[in-house]
Amino acid sequence: DGRATDGDAAAEAARLEDAGIAVEYRLVGQTGEADLAVAAIDTPARVREGEAFDVEVTVDADQAGPVQITLLRDTEVVDERIVDVPVGRTVVSIPQVAGASGLGRYQARVSGQGDAVAENDVGYAAVQVAGPATVLLAEGTPGEAATLAAALEAAGIGTDVVDASALPPLDRLAGYQSVILVNVQAGMLSPAQVATLAASTRDLGHGLVTIGGERSYGVGGYLGTPLEELLPVISEITDPRRRQSVAEVLAIDSSGSMGECHCAEGQGQNSRLPGGVEKTDIARAAAERAISALSEIDEVGVLAFNTDHEWLIDLQQLPPEDVVREGLAAIRPSGGTNLRQSLTLAAEALRQSSAALKHIILFTDGFTAIDAFDEMADEAAALYENEGITVSVIATGEGAADDLEDIAIAGHGRFYPGRDLQSIPQVMMEEAILASRDFINEGSFLPEVTSNDEVVADLSAAPPLLGYVATTAKPQAATLLRIGPDRDPLLTTWQVGLGRSTAWASDASDRWSQTWASWEGYVSFWSEVVRDTFGVESGTTGVSARVEDGVLRVTVDAEGAFADGATAVARVTGPDLQPIEIPLERSGSGEFTGEVPVSDDGTYAVGAVVNGPDGAATSGGSTLANLSYPPEFDPGEPDEAALASLSTATNGRGAITTQQAFDAADLAAGRSRVDLAPWLVLLACLLWPLAVAVSRLNLRGSA
Fold first, then answer.
1. For the whole model, what pTM was predicted?
2. Which is more confidently placed, 638 or 248?
């Protein structure tokens, strides 16, 4: 239809003309067909509860007549009317009254005669309704957030509680002042959900609080993940004095069944469906990552087993990387599975080690003789009780999974079902870390106040906590409370973009915080902690964003003038959840503007920061913008002039019929240029030694 929505057609035409390739066209599109569209839907960015405002719907019509406009707030129809519109664009104002605090999502739909394109009949907008604060608690285990939610409700903070795996998309998450993750394992959140949390915190200036527990931080797989990047703590114990040496044997199944991913459903050793990823390749990558997590004081060995066994890496002090790579390269799937032998041989090797901790990580699909499992469970239990050797099992989501779990339980280790094979390298690395660190500390610990911050001002009479997860504060973070003999961070906070992220190392349940739940200061403490993460809007700076004609335009306004030398930058996260930064240009004494082309329909989170002449942030704000449908469906006629220009620039015949498309009679012969200079230089280099040799032979012959 000639209407470009991306790329540079003129530049491409120049390249085609240079190569002697003509461009011709056959016009298609809605020419002659009337269309009806929602060109835009505009609302105030923010209103207060009960405040009256207008939703402005811009209707684009190719023919005059009655048009039905339906307005929905969330899923409820709040207005429906028929409006007579002329040809062109008409702005229809629909009065509304702001409801409860949070994010109000509006949707406008149009219908009527002359509507050739259905995709552009809808428009979206969002309104932030100011009022009593509401937070979202995402819990790793059902009921675990109940005590904390009750305390926040008692403090006048509204709460919604969901399972962590059900964390909502950005347009819904934006309605909460803060998100609280309660003892959530990193693997419970998809990459898209973590990216959504990042956009909500960094770009929209909302809060993020993480609550500890036996599935959080280092024991929850946070180390090195995008989730950890948002937190003020590292999920690792970095003090080498607190590290105990560990000797680990990675016992890897290299039987023939490990040559494929069975991708079986159900249990039992006969549930085999060949095809998929070779599991020994995954084992190789997983072992390399697990070894990389160890330190120089540790020992490691890699045992491959099938019907027989082979020590790919003998148990030794952490070997060099080239030794590791060479040893792991020898893993090849073949033969049967002698699972019990692997446990026995690994234990024999560990008995020769003087390391403080001894651990076996068994990676197998579990396809072996059924009667071996009971004996292995007994042996694993004996190893732990008599020699302190622990056993963990990483499975592949098939085989005798229940029996493999029994081995891990008996060996006082951990069991990973491994249903997602691509996650196994990360799982094995986490397991290697867990085996060599004492992350969980249990006892009776009195918090130590290490800051004058208002959040911890009234903690002098706080009762002890019964446990916590050890972490390390990041250099830029503020540690408000410490705990334990090693003064580990208990309450840590920092700024992430426009938002604030806070980490609490203990839990929110009866396991470690049972005395706190009955403490009279419990409600006020958590109210202060959570409210401290709420974004504070600048009263003198406003941020607005609007998508029009495939371009997102961002404006930052000040009530007065920004300082001389001030700069501004906006961060935009679109439906693909990939953030981009846009430098904003000063367009007035109190205004910065910028724009970026957009093509994905959906919600765009926009955060902007104004920096003073010294580079320090002075103000900022955030908003949401929506692209209701791709620019391809924007109302308008086909652009034949653009097509004709491209054809003329390439010496084409312009508009052609379908028959002419296959008629080459009038086409000019194509041409192209090839620069031979590099090839000639290469040829000279190749022929030079030959020329020298021939000349020397001639000289010897003449001699």
1. 0.74
2. 248
